[in-house]
């Protein structure tokens, strides 16, 4: 059974859920005052710290919901993912990065700043939260998958000027899990892939610097944001000698997140969890 969610559907779900209440986490501001480039009255980006009741790992996963950099698909690409890993004893941070897109800058500019700052905060508080500072991963969906790749491949490029001591902390991640990442290939740099991405090049957003970590990719082969983007990044990692794992599911579209409906796709989170164990995270 094909499982597809359009951006409009994800947006409607996100809008309805963003204002709902939730439990099981603590919420923190990403920035001590206003975020870079924002007016005084701008909404503040936050992240949620989800701690497992029975901790079995000293790793932490930062989760970035998707939504085209317009909204956040919080429930099925944030909350449900946090609960899955919490149930397995892993600490999760759900990042509510800035949306919608800011005018006059790249679509991901504000979100990338929020992501780098969040990695630094998590690493700076690793001892307090029982986290190994070199077992911090990032996982994202759709636009959040693009943000995951930005954070994972370009940590040696600062996205903002330092504002305090926290910004002296490195912002590299130790593993990454891009799930149906969007905007990865040139023919879909800001839209679904025009030619299904089969012959297109990677966008120039990603630096693939010396701190680029191992990755596990999840994608559907009928996704309008082409699975060839995941294939291209996987290929790049292999050329760099960086371990990777790639799962492409037949007759699966975009946006399933934590809501798969059939046995074929419903096991995808278990595949990711098994990979984290295999890699020692």
In short:
The longest helix has 16 residues. The protein has 281 residues and is α/β, with parallel strands linked by helices.
List the helices and strands and how they pair.
Blueprint (H helix, E strand, L loop, with lengths): L6 H12 L7 E4 L16 E5 L9 E5 L9 H14 L3 E6 L12 H16 L1 H4 L6 E6 L1 H11 L21 E5 L35 E6 L7 H13 L3 E6 L13 H4 L1 H11 L3
Parallel strand pairs: 3-4, 3-5, 5-6, 6-7, 7-8
Antiparallel strand pairs: 1-2, 2-4
Unreliable runs: 1-23
At the fold tier of CATH, the topology name is Rossmann fold
Q: What string gives the helices and strands in order? A: HEEEHEHHEHEEHEHH
Compute the number of helices.
Answer: 8
> Beta-strand level of the residues, as a percent range?
15-25%
Q: Give the N-to-C terminal Cα separation.
A: 33 Å
Characterize the biggest β-sheet. Answer: 8 strands, mixed
Task: Describe this protein's structure.
With 281 residues, the protein is α/β, with parallel strands linked by helices. The protein has one domain: Rossmann fold (3-Layer(aba) Sandwich), CATH 3.40.50.1820. The chain is built from 8 helices and 8 strands; from the N terminus they run H-E-E-E-H-E-H-H-E-H-E-E-H-E-H-H. Helix 2 links the parallel strand 3 and strand 4. Helix 3 (109-124) packs across helix 5 (143-153). The longest helix has 16 residues, at 109-124. 48% of the residues are buried.
């Amino acid at each position: 059974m094909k499982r597809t969610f359009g951006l409009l559907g994800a947006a409607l779900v996100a809008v309805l859920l963003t204002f709902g209440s939730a439990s099981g986490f603590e919420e923190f501001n990403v920035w001590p005052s206003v975020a870079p480039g924002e007016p005084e009255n701008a909404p503040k980006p936050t992240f949620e710290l989800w701690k497992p009741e029975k901790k079995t790992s000293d790793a932490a996963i930062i989760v970035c919901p998707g939504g085209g950099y317009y909204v956040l698909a919080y429930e099925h690409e944030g909350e449900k993912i946090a609960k899955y890993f919490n149930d397995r004893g892993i600490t999760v941070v759900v990042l509510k990065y800035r949306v919608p897109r800011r005018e006059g800058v790249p679509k991901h500019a504000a979100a990338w700043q929020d992501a780098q700052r969040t990695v630094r905060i998590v690493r700076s508080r690793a001892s307090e939260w029982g986290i190994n500072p070199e077992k911090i991963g990032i996982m994202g969906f759709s636009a959040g998958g693009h943000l995951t790749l930005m954070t994972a491949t370009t940590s040696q490029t600062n996205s903002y000027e330092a504002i305090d001591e926290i910004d002296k902390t490195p912002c590299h991640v130790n593993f990454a899990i891009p799930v149906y990442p969007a905007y990865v290939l040139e023919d879909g740099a800001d839209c679904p892939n025009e030619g299904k991405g089969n012959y297109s090049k990677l966008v120039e957003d990603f630096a693939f610097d010396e701190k680029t970590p191992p990755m596990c990719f999840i994608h559907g082969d009928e996704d309008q944001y082409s699975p060839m983007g995941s294939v291209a990044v996987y290929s790049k990692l292999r050329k760099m000698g960086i371990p990777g794992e790639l799962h492409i599911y037949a007759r699966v579209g975009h946006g399933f997140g934590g809501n798969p409906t059939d046995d074929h796709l419903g096991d995808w989170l278990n595949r990711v969890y098994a990979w984290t164990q295999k890699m020692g995270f």
